[in-house]
Amino acid sequence: MAVSGGGQQAGTGTERPGTEQPVGIDELLERVRAGYTRVEAREAYEAAGAGEALLVDIRYAALRERDGLIPGALVVERNELEWRLDPQGSHRVPEATGHDLRIVVICNEGYASSLAAASLHGLGLHRATDLVGGFQAWKAAGLPVTP
Fold first, then answer.
1. Three-class SS of residue 43?
2. Quick check: 141 and 42 in contact, CB under 8 A?
3. What pLDDT, on a 0 to 100 scale, did the predictor assign at position 130?
4. Strand (E) positions, the chain?
5. Which of 29, 107, 7 lies closest to 67 in space, CA to CA?
6. pLDDT score recorded for residue 2
7. How far apart are CA 74 and CA 144, in angstroms?
8. Could you tell me the CA-to-CA distances from 17 to 6, 27, 28, 91 in Å, in that order?
């Protein structure tokens, strides 16, 4: 994802076409999150239960083993996410039915999932979002978790 930085080289005040100022992760998160509406745990639970959203757990195996799984969530490792959810991709999962699919990406605490949702937007999955607070917020809300 390209992030505009104004085109000035840091500290010089000179313009260099084609270059961008570096941004920190906090600013990057703020920018990508401005591009969509994030969801709270209860909203994600209700949308999935109504068949209106696909929950996608991108946490790595050790966290899933330690904390459990969200029943019905599709588990896709973060490094495979785009290949598995691209509706036009040859490696897509059966659930990747089209670009209008509402996807709620879930990581452990809601940071990596924001970057993942932005990446899915780049593939044309314009309804992709992520869970505020991630799996830990889901668990804290008392929503279903299986060991």
1. helix
2. yes
3. 98
4. 54-57, 74-75, 103-106, 129-130
5. 107
6. 43
7. 15
8. 10, 22, 21, 37
Q: How far apart are CA 93 and CA 75, in angstroms?
A: 11
- 89, amino acid identity: G
Who contacts 128 (Cβ-Cβ below 8 Å, separation ≥6)? 36, 102, 103, 105, 117, 120, 121
CA angle 127, 133, 138 (to 5 degrees): 90
What's the rounded Cα separation, in Å, for the pair 65 and 89? 29
The residue type at 16: R
Contact at 8 Å (CB) between 96 and 84? yes
User: In this structure, are residues 139 and 112 in contact, taking their beta carbons and an 8 Å threshold?
Assistant: no
Residue 9 has pLDDT above 60, yes or no: no
Q: Give the position of tokens 């992760």.
A: 25
55: phi then psi, degrees, rounded to nearest 5: -85, 130
CA distance 51 to 121: 21
